[in-house]
Amino acid sequence: MNLNEYQELARRTANPLKDEKLELCNWGLGLAGEAGEVVELIKKHAFHGKTLSIQNLTKELGDVLWYVANLAATVGIDLQEVAEKNIEKLAARYPQGFKEGGGIRSDRPDTELIHDHKANLADQLDPRV
């Protein structure tokens, strides 16, 4: 099954709300809730000494995917496109793959870039001058 087929099947089990804003709220809030369940499994594993159940994690990640698929479909975005655009963004950010402290950010506001440039210049100045 590809991502668009999954998205189509996920839509069959979605609550058909008549209002787009309500649908977006439903999917967005549901996504946050399911992401919280994933986080809870990880937290209990990391800090409470619980065994991480791959079966439960898989189910919760499936719920996250279901909400992402429906959220995207509500605004007319194919899930396949979401995946492709994400990989394109990451390839541009990390052309040689991930490196600690690396990454090229082209989506940052110009004010952040200017601030970083000024900070770099300040770091290069000799404080005795």
Key features of this structure:
129 residues; mainly alpha; Helix Hairpins; 5 helices
Task: Describe this entry's structure for a reader.
It is a single chain. This protein is an all-alpha fold. The chain has a single domain (about 5-100), classed as Helix Hairpins (Orthogonal Bundle). The protein is about 70% helix and about 0% strand. The protein contains five helices and no strands. The protein has helices at about 5-10, 20-45, 55-75, 80-95, 110-125. α2 (about 20-45) runs antiparallel to α3 (about 55-75). The longest helix is centred in the N-terminal third of the chain and has 28 residues, at about 20-45. The model has no long low-confidence stretch (mean pLDDT about 90).
Compact description:
The chain has 129 residues and is an all-alpha fold. 69% of the residues lie in helices and 0% in strands. The radius of gyration is 21 Å and the shape is globular.
CATH superfamily: MazG-like
User: What is the helix fraction of residues, given as a range?
Assistant: 55-70%
Q: What is the CATH first-level class name?
A: Mainly Alpha
Terminal CA distance reads 65 Å
Average pLDDT reading:
88
> Order of helices and strands, N to C?
HHHHH
Give the name of the CATH architecture.
Orthogonal Bundle
Describe the SSE topology.
Blueprint: H1 3-12, H2 20-47, H3 54-74, H4 79-93, H5 110-124
Helix pairs in contact: 1-3, 2-3
